[in-house]
Amino acid sequence: MITRRNFLAGLAASGATALFAKPLTAGSGDDGLLISAARRSDGSFVLVGCTENGEITFELPLPGRGHATTLSPDGKTAVHMARRPGRFMLAVDIATGTLREFVNAPEGRHFYGHAGFSPDGKLLFTTENDFDRGRGVIGIWDCRDGYRRAGEWDSFGIGPHDLTLLPGGTVMAIANGGILTHPDSGRAKLNIADMKPNLTFVDARDGTFIRRIELPSELHKNSIRHLDSGPDGSVLFGMQYQGAKTDAPPLVGHVGPDGTCTLFDAPETLTPQLQGYCADVAIDGSGRFGASTFPRGDRIAIWSIPDGKLMMLNTVRDSAGIATDSHPGAFRFSTGFGRLLTRVAGPDGTIAEHGARRFAGLAFDNHMTLADRHI
């Protein structure tokens, strides 16, 4: 097991502290600080902070491949999670790019790669696998006490990959992907024939069950993986299909605040090109538009909400993460080739393209988070 002590010792021995902080100062360019896991050209993994004007503010070496980053409500801390079946998470000071905490999953648990803060920032929730019992759990961590383990809740499904807290912070949506795994089998999927994904809603104050949404039986191999919540309490979700490559299932769906579930369909001629894999989803600040990435199909998409009309489907090689802020219609996309690009959906449905940046030697991973660099 990697401990905080030997992780820091490894950083010091490698001289990695030299990669840490360029202090962020007001007035030094665009406000956006984009945070993502990435792979360097030498094969090592890092957590990267970079600005929209092309500056890298920090590179923090990771002990393995990372996955997703979540921001604290005060905007000062980023928690980054290991990719399944990794067991580490890091809390990072956004202003300096330095490590605040390094924590391992408890015995018998591994992380699935996503987390979320309570509205007051006192608790962190993590998606986890209780692998010997074959059940999903939501880990609870006390952020005021060095991210001490404070308990766990049932996720009410198998393979909880992502979670999101709805506006108000009293309801949590959990993407139970339905895929049974065990670290003894690496990343092998052990129950494809009878997997049963669901989207479960629980009370974020005590973990009690509220309701569950399941896909039609013919889509039971469509693993619900990633989530984002809109300002009205709706949820956008992305799926990864475990069936035949000749199938062309919907890969994006939406649950309205009234519980109505709508599956979004790309044009029939284009859906097979997406290769059954949605990597990331996001809802814009207005709640009118959603975006998704399809790295195996080299596409990015923007949809109207809630009807699921496809507004844009662009060819982008190895598309990866999506980040949004409060600006209506604005989406930042990353790629596995180190590119950052922006698309903005106008109120009339037009899509504007903005200039791209490329960060040589970095391959961004599947998720990206946007922070305010001046907090």
Q: What's the structural domain tally?
A: 1
Amount of beta strand: over 45%
Largest sheet: 4 strands, antiparallel
**How do the strands line up in the largest sheet?**
3-2-1-28
Distance between the termini: 34 Å
The CATH architecture classification is: 7 Propeller
Order of helices and strands: HEEEEEEEEEEEEEEEEEEEEEEEEEEEE
Q: How many strand units?
A: 28
Instruction: Estimate percent helicity.
Output: under 10%
Low-confidence stretches: 14-29
Query: At the third CATH level, what is the topology name?
Result: Methylamine Dehydrogenase, Chain H
Number of helices: 1
CATH superfamily: YVTN repeat-like/Quinoprotein amine dehydrogenase
The first-level CATH class name: Mainly Beta
Radius of gyration: 19 Å
Mean pLDDT: 91
What general outline do the C-alpha atoms trace?
globular
Helix and strand content put the structural class at mainly beta
Describe this structure in words.
This protein is mainly beta. The protein has one domain (2-372): 7 Propeller (Methylamine Dehydrogenase, Chain H), CATH 2.130.10.10. Helix content is 3%, strand content 49%. A hairpin with a 5-residue loop joins strand 18 and strand 19 (261-264). The model is unreliable at 14-29 (pLDDT under 50).
Please give a handful of descriptors for the protein shown.
375 residues, mainly beta, Methylamine Dehydrogenase, Chain H, 4-stranded antiparallel sheet, 49% strand
Topology:
Elements: H1 4-14, E1 32-40, E2 45-51, E3 56-61, E4 66-71, E5 77-82, E6 88-93, E7 98-104, E8 109-117, E9 123-130, E10 135-142, E11 148-154, E12 160-165, E13 171-176, E14 198-203, E15 209-214, E16 222-229, E17 235-241, E18 252-255, E19 261-264, E20 280-283, E21 289-294, E22 299-304, E23 310-315, E24 319-323, E25 330-335, E26 339-345, E27 351-358, E28 362-372
Antiparallel strand pairs: 1-2, 1-28, 2-3, 4-5, 5-6, 6-7, 8-9, 9-10, 10-11, 12-13, 13-14, 14-15, 16-17, 17-18, 18-19, 20-21, 21-22, 22-23, 24-25, 25-26, 26-27
